[in-house]
Amino acid sequence: MADKYDDEEHRNKIEAPGTLALSLIFLVVFMVLWFLHFKWLVEVWWVE
Amino acid sequence: MAIKEPERIWWKPYTWDEKFWVAVALLWMLTTFTFMPVYHFIGKQNPPFETYRVRNPEQFTALVDAMVEKYKVGEEEGIPVVHPEPGSDVFLQASMWQWYPILQLEKGKTYRIHVYSLDIVHGMSILPINMNFMVLPDYDYVLTLTPTTSGEYHIVCNEYCGLGHHMMVGKLYVK
Amino acid sequence: MEFRTCSFTGLKIHKPAEDLIKWNVITAVLFLTLGGLMGLLIGITRWPSVHYLDPTYYYRYLTLHGFDALLVWIIFFEVALVHFTSAVLLNTRTVIPSAGWIAYSLMLIGAIFVNITTFAGKADVLFTSYVPLKASGVYYTGVIIFAVGALTAFGHFFANIIQAKRDGAYKHSLPLGSFGMAAASIIAVVTLAHGAVIMIPTLLWSIGLIKYLDPGTYRLIFWGLGHPSQQINVCAMVAAWYMVSAFVLGGKPVNEKLSRTAFVLYIFFINVASEHHLLVDPIFSNWHKIINTSYVMHLAVFASMVHAFAIPASMEVALREKGYTNGLFEWLKKAPWGNPAFSGTFLSIIGFGFLGGTTGVIAGTEQFNIIRHNTFFITGHFHGTVVVGTTLAFMAFSYLLMPYIFKRELIMPRLASVQPYLYFIGVSMVSIGMMAAGALGVPRRHWDITFSGAPFSFTFDPSVDMFLSIMGLGTLLAVFAGVIYVVVIIGSALFGRRVAP
Predict the structure, then answer these.
(1) How many structural domains comprise chain C?
(2) How far apart are CA C134 and CA C130, in angstroms?
(3) CB of C313 within 8 Å of any CB in chain A?
(4) How many CB atoms neighbour CB B40 within 10 A?
(5) Which of A26, B77, C374, C454 has the most CB within a 10 Å radius?
(6) pTM
(7) Which of C481, C487, C495, C492 is nearest to C343 (CA)?
(8) Which residues pair with B135 in a beta bridge?
(9) Is C358 in Cβ contact with A34 (below 8 Å)?
(10) If you average pLDDT over residues A4-26, what whole number do you get?
């Protein structure tokens, strides 16, 4: 079994492009939510 | 397969998409992590941690009473309104189910607000700006705050403290 | 002969293991029913236009909802998974079945103690029972008995895999599903140790043998129990995701190394992260909090993101092998969406990630916590993790257990196949409604946000009413889907058509 995966071809293959796309959408949502919170934090804080 | 013992050699090399996702995920996690210590110094929007042990509740009550006596400017619903000296130490006492007294602060001045609970755990939620802190018995928690916006604020209890929990509402003025 | 061969999976199933799984699953579902009923009552109480219960019962049922739905349902189901992954999956036996029954009885007795005490009004302290709020000693005793039972049950996992190794049931490494439950069991032992450290003194304090308990220390150690116990759930849930992918689609992780490393990251890093509950507490320094909550927690979140990729990827690879290779998403369109085990699992992954995961990282950030702590946002967050995530994943897995373990077909398969969708939509509405209201300052654990009887009244942004109504409607939908689930599972277990041996 081992040699089956030992070639360069496997290393550079994308096995799950759809999942990768879904994951990247997830990451974008995550980042947007995070930065929204950052914005809200800066707005409300009682600081000089 | 997740339900069978893996083939003996299961440490096959990662594929491109795996490597990419692992790198991106790790990078984002390191960013959100690094944000905390970095912003700690740049933003100074940190939860306060200055805290003192209160061995005797009467001591704290005495401080509150002294402040009320010296700086009282009015009364609402039987609770004194206090206008302490700007930039000083002020005291706020939580108990079932009251915030005592009502503070009148000045905009742009920094206050050291000591919060303390006489009985059980309470939560201090300043609304509508939605800033939240825990108030514990036996600990004097010093919140160093500078109100930047003026107006009328409410302090709502947001940690369950018995049947009257929802009636525990106080006030805070910023002028 | 105590073994039979499962006609679906070819697994050799040990009779005592089968019985233990059955009883633990059924008990779990009964407590889910109770917890869900409480959820309905408190959910419609927080819906402003209904505002159903009076405060006494609101807080009482809130206590029970937390205990039954968060602890009892989930841990009983996890014990079923313990036996499934350490015996059934390895084609081997459960050692000392009597220990399994002792664990089961202790957990049941403990849970009944807590329920009766709380119903009797002797423990209106909410799930967290922060001292100096005091409940009857019976309540703490119940919690301790339950925890001892759970500890015994998770200990059973290790006894089983050691025996399995001796019997030659596996040669080198555990299957990934068992590996995940091994991680869960390790975390469980650490967690329940915290439980003993804090609950035993609290019991002694409540009956007057100890004069004083420090409220700050209680919160610290309680969350050493409370937070990591959610990590047991995460591990068990992820293990269930992997197993469903394998059973339903024949999916295998694209890379076992990656998935296993991610489980190890959970064990090392997730356990320490419990101080994010104490970010706005006095006592601990900021550095203490940053190191505890962020450094280690984000590596654990990283592990979740790895699983969140690896599991759908395993499904995608398996479906692509079946020939659905057009474009990016043909595999997704052609996936078995009518199979509740699959749809439940996939929705659980989506919901856990988008609703629970993102918001958890945000609310656990030192600075952001100040504008989120103890608001309804937090409640919304953990309904995203524990309900859309763990509960839905376990529901999906139990649809597989019906034929595999109970040897029964599902009654009402049509209804069962829509159940995960209804539940997902319902709880997502609950979660999103809570989070939106919380972001506007609505506190959690609060009977009346119109503050009736208070000296002063605060009026929330008018949109809060809408968000809380979304939550209320979501509650109704989720409870409706919950009823379908209970009827299908209990009905199938009792009256389902027997599967041919």
Answers:
(1) 2
(2) 8
(3) yes
(4) 16
(5) C374
(6) 0.94
(7) C481
(8) B122
(9) yes
(10) 77
Which of C135, C151, C172 is at the close of a domain? C172
Question: What Å distances lie between residue A21 and A2, B17, C55, CA to CA?
Answer: 29, 10, 47
Give the chains touching A; criterion: ≥3 Cβ pairs < 8 Å.
Answer: B, C
For C278-294, the pLDDT digits (tens) are 888 888 888 888 887 77
Statement to judge: residues B68 and B136 lie in one domain: yes
State the residue range of the domain holding C66: 1-172
Distance from CA of B115 to the nearest CA of C (A): 10
B131 to chain C, any CB pair closer than 8 A? The answer is yes
Domain membership flag for residue C339: no
Residue C220 resides in a domain = no
Looking at the partner chain, which of B4, B77, B131 has a beta carbon nearest the beta carbon of C175?
Answer: B4
C406-to-B166, C17, C19, C76, C399 alpha-carbon distances in Å? 47, 12, 9, 16, 10
On whether residue B5 sits in a domain, the answer given is: no
Asked if residue B78 belongs to a domain, the reply is yes
On whether residue C436 sits in a domain, the answer given is yes
Closest CA–CA distance from residue B21 to any residue of chain A (Å) = 7
Q: Which of A6, A16, A34 sits opposite B17 (nearest CB)?
A: A16
Instruction: Say if the Cβ atoms of C458 and B17 lie within 8 Å.
Output: no
Is residue B6 one of the residues assigned to a domain? no
Q: Are C179 and C173 in contact (CB under 8 A)?
A: yes
In the chain, the amino acid numbered C183 is A
Tell me if B131 and A44 make a contact (CB, 8 A cut-off).
Answer: yes
Q: Both tokens of residue C350?
A: 């989506």
When pLDDT is averaged across residues C5-22 and rounded to a whole number, the result is 92
Mean pLDDT of C153-177: 92
B32 and B71 housed in the same domain: no
Is B16 within 8 Å of A5 when comparing Cβ atoms?
Answer: no
Q: Which of B20, B21, B45 sits opposite A41 (nearest CB)?
A: B45
Q: Domain end: C141, C172, C203, which one? A: C172
**Number of structural domains in chain B:** 2
A18 and B CB contact within 8 Å: no
Domain containing residue B144: CATH number: 2.60.40.420
Is the minimum CB–CB distance between C280 and chain A shorter than 8 Å? no
Q: What would the two tokens of residue C25 be?
A: 């699953």
Which residue carries 């969708």 as its tokens? Answer: C421
Q: Determine the structural domain holding residue B142 and report its residue range.
A: 51-174
pLDDT at A11 exceeding the cut of 70: no
**Quick check: C367 and A44 CB within 8 A?**
no
Task: Report residue C467's pLDDT band, with 50, 70 and 90 as the boundaries.
Answer: very high
